[in-house]
Write a structure and sequence with these properties.
heterodimer, A: alpha/beta, Rossmann fold, four-stranded antiparallel sheet, 39% helix, B: mainly alpha
Chain lengths: 252, 567
């Protein structure tokens, strides 16, 4: 379970995340949608303990991230939007290091690493330095590393970027099955079809605030847009490009 | 519409992001903690005053020596500028690889309609600023001392600047040209590794060459047949073809009112010609080199580095053990890191050779007090070497985690455990080095048992503090965006660290020297038992307190900084 209570992040006078309240219970895949700069990544980084909130609290599995960071983080698997890994480690070494950070080691972990790398088709490259990996391979490696310690909660920021269709499908199936087994997933994505197909509930964030949230039907009802698809609804709530503006730019 | 061929951005436009970045960094610094700024200013002031003070004392002494004083002052300036020149060349070679081939803005700049010469000039200016600012800061108090002692007058700063600018440009052009050729032969990633070895080789040759010049001969005039021969040696330029000699000559000519236009002509013809030739080389080789720079990732590992070390680290919890193993793997698999150990080994050999060549046991009986004084100087030199090694290998430790910090911060890894691992992984090898240098050099100097104990205890305490300072200043001034590990110690934080650790070294030696010297005055022979005075005990305790404070306080500050850090 993830609980955000009055979560706020300010940078000087700019408010990146503005008083967000949200509960994602166990067994739910929650989609966090919003335009660029809406505050999604900042929220995720606060949940992962990478950024400190200006005010408010974050709980993972009922444990406060600020008060008990180590216990809270032990339950979390965080997959960032940019797959930065140590260039001079091999894929297997990176996963082993990630497991050790969660206090896990030994033959069970080794088997788990092998299974995950096999699942993401990285076995052939597991003993090669990650500096030779493509963007997609790195993305699959950090997903494997986030799963190696069997987290209760997964927070995943833009997971589909760089993945080929086969890997993207694999990840969708994996996240769905993870929540069916009682896990919690909070995911951000710009691919609205993915969100519509995968998520149990969604929140649309704009200017650091949640402007609508619930199931697809609930969001349609809240915004009085019963006949709209997610893309139109998203543009209605976050402001789309007007034809006149397009004309100005293209015609000069 | 404006014709597209005329829409070429000016040099100032290309450099705009750099100016803006520097200005915004300065604003961020200024808006930071007031106490930190005061502390920084104080450390900088102490360091500058110390450099100025030493230069002033030496020059003042030279000024008073008839006939040869001025020659000695010129010779000293030439040697200082020669040393700076080798640092500048090495620094430019390393920096050019980042600025010309690995920088993040290159995709944008190369895709834009920027002329090749303009791109070359913009990147050359960036390289000069990055690689030369520290040398310029160091040169400032030295030039100031020359200007004051020799009454340079109000125009002296302009003269010094006119002499210094081409002096900085020439090694930058040479260094970037060297890197340009190298990248065309090897892909940039491999070049980065090769550069370490090549640059090391170049410095090794320079050091050995300098050693064979035997500069100590100048301090022993009795070795020359007569004064005329000694004066002839002093008058002969050490390296007439190098810009360091021209710069030194131009400055000394101004200070001694000698009307010789050749040095300024040489400098101001050589620099533009070098830039023009560098531009031509860039025009021919840059684009194929840049294209090659995008290739060449290494695939296979050569050193798995697991089996032999694990038994020694078994007692540690898995997170600390894997953290240490990870750092060791990253270090030994990156040639740019370990290749500089070769340079260190050569430096140490030259250092030990110098200690051995000291004319202390050349037949005449030498008072053991003199040996003890030299042992103190040796302690200072060993401390300097250790501080420099810590700057290179420990200071970058936190910065090198930058991009991967998401993993460390989102995991339940205790920041204290990370700091602990980083501290000991850097400190243990440094302690071994410190003990080896101190014990071996003191053995070469035949110092007394008491002095050996003093030196060993001091160097152990200082090493603990120096590595804590290096790690902490590395955390306080991280360089997360730097592509090149060798560049990290040349940052502002690196300079502040060096100033702090050298100030600590000076403080330790000052506290220690007075009571030890006083005690030695009462002791006539080395075999006489040592009388432990209250002043000696107080000094020992004070050094322990100062060093342990300089170890614990910075580490705590670093821990707080890491805990508060945001990415």
């Amino acid at each position: 379970m993830i609980r955000l209570t009055h979560l706020t992040k300010r940078y000087g006078k700019f408010t990146a995340v503005d008083d967000i309240n949200l509960i994602v219970p166990s067994g739910e895949l929650f989609g966090f949608l919003g335009p660029n700069g809406a505050g999604k990544t900042t929220t995720f980084r606060m949940i992962a303990g990478i950024l400190h909130p200006t005010s408010g609290t974050v709980e993972i599995g009922g444990v406060d991230v600020l008060r008990h960071p180590l216990q809270a983080k032990a339950r979390l698997g965080f997959i960032p939007d940019r797959p930065f890994v140590y260039d001079k480690l091999t894929g297997a070494e990176f996963c082993r290091f990630a497991a050790a950070l969660y206090g896990q080691q030994g033959p069970v972990v080794e088997r788990r690493i092998d299974e995950l790398l096999e699942l993401f088709e990285l076995t052939r490259w597991k003993n090669e330095l990650t500096e030779s990996y493509s963007h997609g391979m790195r993305q699959k490696l950090i997903i494997s590393a986030a799963l190696v310690h069997r987290p209760e909660v997964i927070v995943v920021d833009e997971p589909m970027i760089g993945l080929d269709p086969k890997s993207a499908r694999l990840l969708k199936d994996l996240l769905r099955q993870f929540v069916e087994r009682g896990g919690t997933v909070l995911m951000s994505t710009h691919t609205l079809e993915v969100a519509e197909a995968m998520c149990d509930r969604i929140a649309i964030v704009h200017g650091g605030k949640i402007v609508a949230h619930g199931t697809m039907a609930e969001v349609q009802e809240q915004t009085e847009s019963e006949d709209m698809g997610l893309e139109d609804l998203f543009l209605k709530l976050t402001g789309g490009m007007h034809d006149q503006q397009l004309d100005t730019i293209l015609d000069g | 519409m404006t014709p597209r061929s005329s829409i070429r951005p000016s040099l100032a436009t290309v450099l705009t992001p750099k100016w803006l970045t520097a200005a915004s960094r300065l604003r961020q610094e200024q808006s930071g903690s007031g106490a930190r700024i005061v502390l920084l200013s104080l450390v900088a002031l102490v360091f500058w005053v110390a450099v100025f003070g030493i230069a002033y004392r030496v020059l003042h002494y030279f000024r008073g020596v008839e006939e040869i004083g001025n020659l000695m002052a010129g010779k000293m300036l030439g040697v200082i500028l020669l040393a700076f020149l080798s640092i500048l060349l090495l620094s430019n070679i390393i920096t050019a690889l980042s600025t010309f081939f690995l920088a993040k803005d290159l995709d944008l700049l190369i895709a834009a309609p920027i002329g090749r010469s303009r791109l070359y000039l913009a990147k050359l200016i960036e390289t000069i600023v990055h690689s030369s600012w520290m040398v310029a800061l160091l040169a400032l108090p030295i030039f100031t001392a020359y200007g004051i002692v020799y009454h340079g007058g109000p125009l002296f700063p302009i003269v010094a600047l006119v002499a210094f600018i081409p002096y900085l440009v020439l090694p930058a052009v040479l260094g970037t040209g060297f890197t340009l050729v190298l990248v065309n032969v090897f892909p940039a990633r491999r070049t980065r590794e090769l550069l370490g070895l090549l640059a090391t080789g170049a410095v090794v040759l320079a050091l050995v060459g300098l050693r064979f010049l035997r500069p100590e001969q100048l301090a022993q005039p009795e070795g020359f047949r007569n004064l005329v021969e000694y004066l002839a040696v002093l008058r002969t330029p050490t390296s007439p073809l190098l810009p360091s000699e021209w710069t030194a000559a131009m400055i000394m000519n101004w200070l001694l009112h000698v009307a010789d236009p050749w040095p300024i002509i040489k400098l101001w013809i050589a620099a533009p010609v070098a830039v023009a030739l560098g531009g031509l080389l860039h025009r021919r080789l840059y684009h194929p080199g840049f294209s090659k720079a995008q290739e060449g990732a290494e695939r296979k590992i050569r050193r798995p580095l697991r089996g032999p070390l694990v038994p020694f680290l078994r007692w540690l919890p898995p997170s600390k053990r894997e953290f240490i193993l990870k750092d060791l793997r990253l270090f030994f698999r990156d040639n740019t890191q370990w290749s500089q150990l070769i340079l260190l080994a050569v430096l140490l050999m030259v250092y030990l050779f110098n200690i051995q060549s000291l004319p202390l046991y050349s037949g005449e009986r030498v008072p053991f007090r003199l040996v003890t004084m030299i042992s103190f100087l040796n302690l200072g030199l060993a401390g300097f070497v250790l501080a420099a090694v810590a700057a290179r290998f420990i200071f970058p430790a936190i910065s090198l985690e930058g991009r991967q910090m998401w993993l460390l911060r989102s995991s339940p890894l205790d920041p204290g455990a990370m700091l602990w691992s980083k501290y000991w992984i850097g400190t243990l090898p440094l302690l071994v080095l410190a003990l080896a240098i101190t014990i071996f050099t003191n053995w070469l100097l035949h110092v007394s048992e008491f002095m050996m104990i003093v030196a060993v205890a001091t160097i152990v305490l200082y090493t603990l503090a120096a590595s804590a300072l290096a790690l902490s200043f590395g955390a306080l001034y991280p360089q997360f965006g730097t592509e090149n590990a060798a560049q990290i110690p040349t940052s502002f934080g690196g300079l502040v660290y060096m100033m702090s650790s050298l100030s600590l070294l000076a403080a330790v030696i000052m506290i220690e020297a007075q009571p030890v010297t006083a005690m030695l005055r009462t002791q006539r022979f080395a075999s006489q038992p040592v009388a432990i005075t209250p002043a000696l005990i107080f000094a020992a305790l004070l050094i322990a307190v100062v060093c342990l404070t300089a170890t614990i306080v910075p580490l705590r500050m670093a821990l707080r900084t890491i805990e508060k850090m945001e990415w």
